[in-house]
Amino acid sequence: MKFEFRVEAHQNKARTGRLETPHGSVSTPLFMPVGTQATVKGLSNRELAEVGSQIVLGNTYHLMLRPGSERVAALGGLHGFTGWRRPWLTDSGGFQVMSLGHRRVISEEGVEFSNHLNGDRILLTPERSIEVQQELGADIIMAFDECPPYPAGRDYLENSLERTLRWLERSLAAKSRADQALFGIAQGGVELDLRRRSTLETIKIDLPGYAIGGLAVGEPKEKMIPAVDLSTDLLPADRPRYLMGVGHPEDLVAGVALGVDMFDCVYPTRTGRFGYALVDSGRLNLSSARYKDDPEPIDPGCDCYACQNHSRAYITHLVRAGEMLGLRLLSLHNIRYLHRLMERARAAIAAGSYGDFARDFAARRWPEGEPGWFVGAMQRAEMW
Hints:
By secondary structure, this protein is α/β, with parallel strands linked by helices. The chain is 43% helix and 19% strand. It folds into two domains: 4-265, TIM Barrel; 272-352, no CATH class.
């Protein structure tokens, strides 16, 4: 029933930690695969465990509609329903406030959506979001928030963050399960004064953890990095910090340097389904004919099943032939790649060599020179 977080090592702002949940202990910084429909697309629980997944993320909005949170609760919550016995995190539905903008109307009460499955109108309020998340039974649940789009006007951002703060208070009041940890979400877009205000007001409420929301929604990275840096400066050092929706490898390396502990994104599996493999140099397009005769594994340094057993040539054949195995193998590799990246990051922080790790990553990723935003992130973190 416990939820605890402790920092185990740090180098400047970067840190490693241990997060204790009712369904197990996890190491941070970590990447969380996204299981929108209570499944990480194409992969089994055994495969997720084998590649090193520690927490899986589920989507409140989608699971509320199908199969229904009441049904999931009756079948043992997400842990019993899916068989993934390790920790779960559920989002609040706040991202859908933005992504389904053409289907929703926002009011102080909540957000009225047009159900994308059958067109019915549904109302998602802070109280309903918490009720659904309690029925789903995740270890970590998120306060209901409004994730504003980019770009958004200052007045919109200000009204949005104030509403999100009021919804946080309602979310906390609605929470009744002691075995779930509620995280608050700070907003404010890339307006640093609004981001500061939202973060300082959010942390006035004593919560087990806090999230940095409203980023990675289309803004330039030159604007995202200062917002992340400010956020981690303000968030409590003894609580986990979760940068929502971020999963590009270079963003993880920069985010860890700035003190982020948790990340999630559909990027590795979605990229895999489009035929791409993640490697330190970027992405390999394994639907390309250039790899049809390549006997090498995707990544000679990777220990995933795909790299240990199959060649680029074989996976290229599968992708070009439309065989689902090819896309599954790429998704499996891509998730393992991000987990290995976080394992390497944790080891570098513990050894006090994160700057060297980041330089080596950057040299592979951008052999002609790092982009200014990445250099700026490392300089802000005092790693370079």
